[in-house]
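Repro:
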Amino acid sequence: MNRFSLHGQVAVVIGGTGVLGGAMARGLSAAAAAVAVVGRSAKRGQAVVDDIVATGGRAIFVAADAGVRQQLVAARNTIVDRLGAPQVLLNAAGGNDPHVTVTADLLFEDIDLTAWQQSLDLNLTAGVLLPCQVFGPPMVAAGRGSIINIASITAHVPLSRVVAYSAAKAAVVSLTKFLAREWAPAVRVNSITPGFFPGEQNRRLLFDDSGQPSARGQQILQHTPMDRFGDPDELVGAAVFLASHAASSFVTGTDLRVDGGFLSTTI
């Protein structure tokens, strides 16, 4: 089981202040990595750090907007000074914007271009491009590293009319494959596609006021062979596997689906 140990490694989790990012940050720490939680919310980021420290791990919070290169560079310098050079980068920043979600009242042809660009900036530029540009080259120079991008099932199938989010996440998968080829063999670059995991943004869509699955939630469950939603901790194994060179040294350019079988179901 030492193959899955991240002892002696430094892991950076961009968007570690969120539900899924926080769970994976805690999981990387449980695998013995020193973890830098990077995000905009000091309150939520420090809560993740406190959880890690309380269980004997080593972690720091670094405030940065992933969409601002200068802030990412400053974050990288802080992490190197306080923890050491990162060997793992997990990009978990992103989210859907209702202003670019097609509805009966908002047709595709009426989507505002500014809102569209903001969604692409959040999920693709800040979500993957800039963090990889800032943290990737030092890993390449060092000759070893693992980058893990968080994609979405909407990257693979048109879903819920979240058109801008879907387009951005499809680009995340494509960019992951490009970087896997570009930075091999020094740095491995992979993505994880989560299924439906209740979080801050989608809880109202998945559950009604009584806490039971909503009509939309029931549709999703009927399409999910595992017949339930995912628990954030169920992403930890995938993250640790891809982070560990000993466990996944020949894995790069792949998209690892943790979706309860959702994408395997057609009828």
